[in-house]
Queue: 2 jobs
Job 1
Amino acid sequence: MDGMDQLWLSAPGLALRLWADDARDGGRAVGWQPNPAAQAWAQRKQLVGPEWGKLAAQLRQALAAGHGQGRVSIGAPAIGLTWTAVTLPEGWLIWLEVAEPSDEHPARDLQQSQERLSVRLRAAEAEAAQWSRAVDLAAVALWRLDLVANRVYLSDWGYRMLGMETREVLTIDELRTLIHPDDLPAVMRAAQEAAASTEVHDVETRYRHSNGGYRNLFTRRVAERNAQGEVIALSGVSLDMTERIAERERAQAYAQRIDRVTNAAGVGIWNVDIETGTIEWNEQMYRLYGIPRSDPPPPNDRWLNELVHPDDREIARNHRPLVGTGTQGLHAEFRIVRPNGMVRWVASWSRRE
């Protein structure tokens, strides 16, 4: 979903989306769509779909004739509307304003109304452009799945993430063919859950890039509804996590190699976060102390008072880098007592960071 789509959806006033072709979805007319403000206004005025369809036909005819603004009417009795359109590759965004010119100065009133619309539109476009630049700087893709028109709208970053050089027009089904087969069920489930609620639903998905590889995208979606509460679209954001995931996997692989080496050498590794008190033990530490792997690492007090031999606790206490101030390695040798009563000698090297 690009900046203009976002502007159309969030506009405080009446706006209409008009596609160049209104024969979509098996011939069903879906070539026009009011924004939420226009839908609410139409409901208050008791205006129904056919009247909006007639209005869309009037606007399409005017736009085909080269007009970018003008005056039309809708409903019975007729409600006068002035309009200004912005042309897009696939159609138009049209801003509407209720305008009833006086009998004395209809031309002047119409011109003033159109000028107000133009000023409002320029300000809204500037705001949308600023917002779009901020999103681009954050490398976040915006997207919208129009469930009525069966079309996908992507921001520039969305096309970049998929490796598309041009603004290719995609249907929802075409977009889903790019999803890794193993991830498609999770995406479909997230879409169904979003459509059934008002909550935001997240999923991490692999999408096929134009270079043949896959990009890991974190996607967040929420449903859009019309005035009748029917789901008409899913909109959301995507963040490319490929490099972060690759870095995480490299770190995990490195840690696994280190763990295999230390286990083979019979070396236990431990770590204590001084700020949080969190303790980590590798598998060999559990073997040395004879503690089940399912148990959490013992707190410092329990380690010292229960697992270290009573005669060596002073040595172990002074060795712990928790009480030191230096960063150099500390070495000590002391006895530990395993749960089965067996006493073992261990040599320990520690470093405070």
Job 2
Amino acid sequence: RPEYSGTGAFSLEVFDRWGRPLFSADDPIGGWDGFTPEGNPAEAGVYFYALSVAGQAYRGQVTLVR
């Protein structure tokens, strides 16, 4: 989960390698727990994120280790 203490708009999305959305949030308190939308543990591997904070967009990857 990203650390964010600002007051501007916040949006986080996590995708698998095929672009399927796995997680989205507009609240910086929560974060992706490594589970699929169906409630199953996501496989270990690389996932991609799109983060928007106060009008700034960031994209990158995160590695899930089990």
